[in-house]
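Format notes (please read before filing issues)

Several people have asked whether sequences and structure tokens are stored in separate files. They are not. Every record keeps both together, in the order shown below: the sequence lines, then the token lines. Line labels are part of the format and must not be stripped during preprocessing.
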Amino acid sequence: MTGFGPALAPTNLTGEQHLTLILVALALLVLGLLPALPNLGPLLYPPRHPRRTELDAEIQRLPYAQRLLWTPQLLALGVREGGAAWAELVRTRLRARRERRRNGTRVLVDAVEHDALEHGEGGEGTR
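Then the structure lines:
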């Protein structure tokens, strides 16, 4: 016996018992996660995105049986639109950060270039 302990030790289960255990675990997984899947759809959108609050309201309005049928469409739409929304949010944040850095360090870079040119150094190529 290896050091895995008694929980992972080989058992004397038959093939049918293994299949039953796998099916029970699969049923618990599906029945445990399936009701939560519609609530994951709005999380595909960035915070404070208008579509996120709209989807939350639509999910609460739908009957349970329709939620299960609506979920695959919601997830597909969320991946497509939400992914684009997240990408735009990241681009906006990076642009703003780059602009802040540029505005904050621009004076310093200009002063260094000016000093380099006054002292006969290369200027733009010496950065």
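For reference, the curators noted about this record: The chain has one domain: 34-126. The mean pLDDT is 76.
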